[in-house]
């Protein structure tokens, strides 16, 4: 029988996409808009405190194109906290002007394809840091979900573990060429959301998303076994740029 791989799982993740209801935003009074921006700043300040205390992490990006306007990505130890955050945002004054556009639930994942010398590698500081990462606040983000193919001869789930491990090792060699240019967080979503993995990439230059994804298309693990969902790409929205972004 084909052996599954053991995974190391870290913080739960919520990608929360919102569209600004620009019509009601424009109809709102100056005071209401101010109150709404302040409510968002308050939430961000509270989430920053969580991040400083290493109990989670978050980022906010402005999505390019019509799929959404904003993407929040939250990492927390439990799905309850993610749900609370989502509700908190909905209840806030800003929430009155945010229409849910899309969401994705997953958990930060590393697999144990390569052998580790210790029994509990998830406790090694460098691994623990990758399972519970402080999200980079790089200028650009790219998010998309993906599956491993299960069709005819191209079935990832009938490949032996060492073969899958070898293919992923080849894949990682392509990935490493982008060190410093692209930072990736792989989140597992089997049993949690519609696709099997979420891919979140951060870059200083959005062209690097096209370069890495294109180059990886030729790695066997993607050319034979990769199926991809919808792509979202965005620009970092730092706290001090939110008011200007919403200013009308
Ligand atoms: O353990 C590690 O993180 C190192 C080896 C590695 C694994 C096991 C690795 C390295 N990846 C692994 C697993 Mn990856 N990765 C993707 C995508 O668009 C595409 O074609 C694929 C989307 C990108 C861009 C990317 C980048 N990787 C995985 C898995 C889980 C598969 C499974 O278990 O079946 C998926 C879905 C996936 C997808 N990967 C790297 C990168 C980069 C940049 C690296 C090098 C990171 C580094 O070494 O610093």
From TrEMBL:
Binding site for Fe-coproporphyrin III: 130, 144-148, 171, 184, 222
One biological process term in Gene Ontology: heme B biosynthetic process
Cofactor note: Fe-coproporphyrin III acts as both substrate and redox cofactor.
EC number assigned by the record: 1.3.98.5
EC class of the enzyme, as a word: oxidoreductase
Keyword Iron included in the entry's annotation: yes
Sequence similarity: Belongs to the ChdC family. Type 1 subfamily.
Protein name per UniProt: Coproheme decarboxylase
Lineage, broadest ranks: Bacteria, Bacillati, Bacillota, Bacilli, Bacillales
